[in-house]
Amino acid sequence: MRPVSRVKEFNLPDLGEGLTEGEILKWLVAAGDLITLNQPIVEVETAKAAVEIPAKWAGRVVTIFHQEGETIDVGTPIIAIDTQPDAGPLPDSGPSGHPEPSAASLAAVEVAPAEGAVEPGLIGGPAPGGRTAVLVGYGPKTVTAKRRPRVQPAAQSSPQAQAAPAVPQQPAPVIPAVRPAPTAPVSPAAPVSPAAPVSPAAPVSPAGLAPKGAGVLAKPPVRKLAKDLGVDLAALVGTGPQGSITRDDVQAAVAAPAASNGRPVVTGDREQRIPVKGVRKLTAENMVSSAFTAPHVTEFLTVDVTRSMRALERIKALPDWQDVRVSPLLLVAKAVLAAIRRYPMVNSSWDGDHIVVKDYVNLGIAAATERGLVVPNIKDAGALSLRELADAMTGLVRTARAGRTSPSDMSGGTFTITNVGVFGVDTGTPILPPGEAAILAFGSVRDMPWVHKGKIKIRQVTTLGLSFDHRIIDGELGSMFLRDLGAFLEDPEAALLAWG
Amino acid sequence: MAKGQPPARDGRDDIAPEPEFVQLLNPEGERVEHPEYSVDFSDEEYRDLYRDLVIVRKLDKEATALQRQGELAIWASLLGQEAAQVGSGRALRPQDMAFPTYREHGVLYCRGIDPIMPLSLFRGVDYGGWDPAKYKFNMYTIVIGAQTLHATGYAMGINLDGRIGGGNGSGDDEAVIAYFGDGASSQGDVNEAFVWAGVFHAPVVFFCQNNQYAISEPLERQTRVPLYQRAAGFGFPGVRVDGNDVLATYAVTRAAMDNARHGQGPTLIEAYTYRMGAHTTSDDPTRYRIASEVESWQAKDPILRVHRFLTNQGLADDAFFSSVEEQAAEVATHLRERVLSMPEPDPMSVFDNAYPNGSPLIDEERERFVAYQASFAEGAH
């Protein structure tokens, strides 16, 4: 430090708790002013507050080091004050009269390695969001810590270095050894090794009945770690205080495969790389091709399907339908076929120069299988009776689930239904299979409060989602088609009679 | 306004401007009478109260300046609450026990304690420990509201020891005062203390300085009813006093403490006041309250009204007032000098009082810290 002089420099203090900098808002004094103790001299704004700093000494202002608007690190001199203004003029030169901050004071704020930095989460340490944890307020921005200069430890020469704790830079490889059983007779001459055969004559130790690791010293978090990593604590020799097993001991045991108990060692970067091929590759290509070729529009309609569900129950009760799988999807398929008859343009495809309207419906049913998404279709489904349609759907899904769907089963589809309701979701925005003009998503059927004949009743309700290719189908056509699907499912008997 | 509708919150003007409270000296410095409470001070005692108020404010201002100059790590200013602290502090009898928060610098001063005592805590050179039994003043409690439980337990002990209701000979009966704020009134600890004190009839006075803000949260975020009315739910009386009136604060506190020592159980006192400064030096109140509100409270200044009273009554002249100013400046200068000359604590002392018989972990940490300290070029700071 400099010898005590009549000119004193005032360093910006930490005005909050753990603040590192402040902005000079306004100087309330100027060079040459006579000031009194505790007279406000400057307004400084920190991350927490704008405050006035009172003068620490009475005297005359010699130099103001930083102008308004400057952001200053805590510990930096901001003003020099002549504390003996009546003692005659200041010498022209010399450290005390120098207008720059003294070298010593600057050295005090030099950046040093952040050794011994406060741990995250502690007061004064870094907190989430890049701030510093403090007791009150928002906390300052985190900046490079400023530390006192450190002695470069001279290897093995300084007694201080000897006294320094032996904290290895990297975890020392600790080869775990088997603990000798406390009661096992061990000859001092016989080295204990993991492979040492236990003599059959050795007395059975009562300790052997205790739970594994019960007699071992280890802190609960270490025990938890050992359990998670599958390490037997009883098989380790502790390097901690009083022979306790440390975290490093457990981790070293894991790192040493020879000593592991045969479990697979946890390695790798916890990422799995799956080659893209087969169904996944085909699905990806189809979806990308469709999504970026056909301009999709999706519309939704929520409908009361209670009557459809009751009709299904009645069909199930018919004697010759006993062994057939009857699901709501069947009626949806029937509704689609009926509606397509009324709006054939929905059952078409885009061919560049032409729109190809089909007189047949190859009805695709999306099926989730172990191989992935498979969309087999029922050829000429429009020509089938309800019973034939039910049989075809049952067979089609069974074949798909068994993984035996042939390529021809999957080609030539003209309209597709995706039954997302089986997964318990309400609806989705389906993507068109390439070459098809429309696709219907069928959501789950739920008991819902519904206005029925002017009263709120619990009704069975589902949501339909129809995506269509806007190159072919305009909003009007799509809406009418979707409305007809809804009308069919709300009152299938009337629709069949009226449209049949 | 519909029944059960909360009061409007968009402007504090909607709250009754002048709540019902016990007042003996109004902001104009006029003595007003109250049917239940009164004071009977000599001229000298009136002047002493003024001296206390001025010195306490000056000490507080000096400590705030010391923090701004980097000599204290933090300071919790009592500016505006001098009357609440001096009035209640002077109302205590020597045998009474006080449990402060970290802002009771005025109470500490009135207990006859050297004001330097807590500054080592705020300078960060010790942990703020002192012998509570010696000073009849517990250590500053940083945990909000925790001291109300300590006070209640202490008061229950007085009951068990029979040092109450004439059981300890005349005049020696004890009572306890627990200080806290409006923010602490929302703490579970404080409500538990109320329950225990009420149920066990503990000789404790809960002295709430309602300074209107829990750091930045205004009173309407703490309560729908006046705080003193909460006491009814716990089965003991509550009273609101003008916290900027040193006479009323004294009278109400003295009566409540005497009731407690005479076996009449606890009382909740709500001293209605205002924190003129920041919550602590780490806080900026301009971010959450408006200047006009602060100005309205400046007119109710606790010192100004005593100054007017003394002048109007002919109890003091300019010579007296300037002598008080000089005395306060001396006390503040003395405080500053002693703060600046506080010895740096031995860093190793942190390990000294951890365990009476040592511990392997502490020993290891001590060893490491010795090496760490030795690693600096300039040596230990």
UniProtKB/TrEMBL annotation, chain B:
Ranges for domain Dehydrogenase E1 component: 53-346
GO molecular function: magnesium ion binding; oxidoreductase activity, acting on the aldehyde or oxo group of donors, disulfide as acceptor
One of the GO biological process terms: branched-chain amino acid catabolic process
Region (Disordered): 1-28
Pfam families: E1_dh
UniProtKB keywords: Oxidoreductase, Pyruvate, Thiamine pyrophosphate
Coiled coil feature spans: none
Necessary cofactors: thiamine diphosphate
Domain of life: Bacteria
InterPro entries in UniProt: Alpha-ketoacid_DH_E1_comp, DH_E1, PdhA/BkdA, THDP-binding
The protein's name in its UniProt record: Pyruvate dehydrogenase E1 component subunit alpha
Organism: Rugosimonospora africana
Gene name, Swiss-Prot/TrEMBL: pdhA
